[in-house]
Amino acid sequence: MARADADTPMMQQYHRLRDEAGDALLFYRMGDFFELFFEDAKVAAGCLDIALTKRGDGVPMCGVPVHAAESYLARLIRAGHRVAIAEQIESPAEARKARGSKALVERAIVRLVTPGTLTEDTLLDSGSANWLAALARVGDESAIAACDISTGRFELVACAGHELAAELARLGPAEVIGAEPVPGIEARWGHEGFDSLAGERALKRRFGLADLDGLGGPGRAELAAAGGLLAYLDATQREATAFLGLPRRVQRSAHMAIDAATRISLEICRTAEGTVAGSLLGEIDRCVTAAGRRLLGTDLAAPLTDRAAIEDRLDLVAWFTEEPIRRDRLRSALRSLPDLGRGLGRLVAGRGGPRDLAALRDGLGGASDLAATLAATALRPRLLDDLLPLLGGHQTLIEELARALVPSPPLDAAKGGFIAEAYDPELDTLRSASSDGRRAIAELEGRYREATGVSALKIRHNAVLGYHVEVPAKHADRLLAPDSGFTHRQTMAGAVRFNSPALHEEASRVLEAGGHALTLEQAHLERLTAHAVGEAAPISTTADALARIDVAAALAERAGEGGWVRPTLDEGPCLEIEGGRHPVVERALGKSGDRFVANDCCLGASDRLWLITGPNMGGKSTFLRQVALIALLAQAGSFVPASRAKIGLVDRLFSRVGASDNLARGRSTFMVEMVETAAILAQATPRSLVILDEIGRGTSTYDGLAIAWAVVEAMHDEARSRTLFATHYHELTRLAGRLPCLSLHNVRAREWKGDLVLLHEVAEGAADRSYGIAVARLAGLPPTVVSRAKSVLAKLEAGRDATGGIAAGLDDLPLFAAAMAAEPAPDPLAEALSDIDPDALTPREALQALYRLKALSHSSADG
Ligand SMILES: Nc1ncnc2c1ncn2[C@@H]1O[C@H](COP(=O)(O)OP(=O)(O)OP(=O)(O)O)[C@@H](O)[C@H]1O
């Protein structure tokens, strides 16, 4: 950016702030506008579709009015920008008084608005959490510190480096920051404060702790991540304090591990297109509060692995399913409650207003009423008993707010009018003085009309003149007369304006009383805010408890709608589902009047790998996904779409679909498929659930079949997870004879009078044929192409029958484990030798190399 020495003081100030803003756009406050200059102006004008103009000196600029700034900010943030807000921190009058008549108003950056540090309702999605995640690595430890300052949530997660991506996928953060790049993770790098000592200090200072034992002694990586996070919050929030509860250390083993690819493939909280509608969350969400919706998303993103904790949630859902009337009443009470958590977040951040206080009054009041209703019910489940006490305990604050505030206060505190009558006698006196004054002014208008005989005379008010008398120009003479008692102030095109001593006196009265009243109201606002902020922790606990109740009641509602059942949980590696359905597909079919065919699945220790064949469009993918979703729902504490389900707890869930498009990430589809399959083979355990859909499809038939074959064997012999494997390679069915825990299943289809009928029924045994051509015909491929394909197929099949086909000879293949043993182990001595380049060695290095080789030869002889 060009910077001339001749810059005006204002431009010098601008450049200083511009430098401080770094890569953020700078909103530079000038009166009622935020202005942007230079490159910022070009970027913002393009993104916001507003006029780009030029100043007199040719500098590009554009601006947004302060009162509408939030909606512009929202668009910039959504487009991936960050925005630094430079406010005037003194008034022009103060500047003049302090530094002379030409003094420049002092400005400072008061906040950096970034996607992960938002608190405004208009900028946030009410139905999902808004995480900011900070990543740190110290030695081989990695950790994430994450917070949602709109609700005060704060988590620390320690994990191995390769697990970072999966943990981030669980959180789905709006913004990720770190110090140094971590391969494979997209974030804003180069931030400071990622230091374990600084982190420890910052945590202690922030929460007033003498030591961190109460937090369970976080590790060095967690402290470093917390340090980076807190430093970033300080840098972005400046004077305001971000709302943070005490950090909760998340035990990763307490949650079902689900990596990013699985989340995308199962469309858990978002569809592949990124919408909530059409995802599992969108389909099952019957929450009536925004906080409930956020919690349901969190629950689905992180199903539990602890049986007792899941049973507690299920007990509560069951309790709500038993009493639909009670549930309805509770839900309508919840529906009317405001979003406590986010209102509190704004108050703590110093961006709250009277309406946020009213939200606390109504939300906390509603919570305590709800607690009373629920306490009167019998046979309460344990979780509810734990939640009840958390709903109450705010009586003093509720009463104070109820007395202090008018029923529905304005959003903006600036004009006052939010403190109720009879709360503060002094305020009442000032208010009546000011309204008496206004009445006196109105009376004055009548008297002046009579006295002057100008019926069009009006008393008006504006920001420049304050109260004044205005008459049409043609009647001005009467008031301009020297003895009229009026003083001329301003002549306009059609009107003339005057002042008078009586008006001046009344106006000062109004102004003074009004000004004092406003100051008094502001003082009350500050005090009430401080009171509420002082109780931030218990208030957010109440908000969480309400959300938990909403989620349970909503799940009961959904279970009732769909005839879902309570799953039984088991510690063993079983998975028994009778009459299972895919909630999203079932809904889509229902809309077009089609019936969903329910299917069973029964995996156990001796039958843990199902190989599923069948025609395209037969329902293989749907079946695979429904099994995974049922396990996931069960462990999230929900009833499931089935007539019976017994779920052996799943530690990790994997779902892969062969050859799915992932060109955006710059890898070929087949490469992605193989990388992801490798990840499963490396991580799946006997307690995992793995669904593999047409793995190997993305390459040539021979390679694909070979890979699919080897993957099935490895899943069976090595990972030993519960596995569903859907494939079009019929040759794989030969594995049934070789692998004892593998069984064959197919989605049934029939040809009837030459037409293909897909039954969507999962049955035992392999599919008799593939029906590919029949499906192609169903899809409307031209008859000539279909009949040509048929004759090509006949030739191919004849060839296969003669030679045994592409799988001929596979039966002679040694078993997977035997083949692994037979593979020769690498010889370290030979490898070391081949690494040596004799011509590149000095005599001394050559001697050292000889010693090394000798030592190696000894150790391999010993081994
Ligand atoms: N159980 C079911 N009951 C009724 N309709 C179903 C069922 N399962 C699937 N369908 C219907 O069949 C369509 C295809 O299902 P799906 O994608 O699961 O088939 P597929 O066997 O995986 O196909 P492909 O091999 O071509 O990938 C679905 O969109 C749905 O409309």
Automatic annotation (TrEMBL):
SUPFAM superfamilies: DNA repair protein MutS, domain I (SSF55271), DNA repair protein MutS, domain II (SSF53150), DNA repair protein MutS, domain III (SSF48334), P-loop containing nucleoside triphosphate hydrolases (SSF52540). Pfam families: MutS_I, MutS_II, MutS_III, MutS_IV, MutS_V. ATP binds at G614, P615, N616, M617, G618, G619, K620, S621. It comes from the Bacteria. SMART domains: MUTSac, MUTSd. Keywords: ATP-binding, DNA damage, DNA repair, DNA-binding, Nucleotide-binding. Residues 688-704 form the DNA mismatch repair proteins mutS family domain. Belongs to the DNA mismatch repair MutS family. This protein is involved in the repair of mismatches in DNA. It is possible that it carries out the mismatch recognition step. This protein has a weak ATPase activity. This is DNA mismatch repair protein MutS. It comes from Sphingomonas glaciei. The gene is mutS.
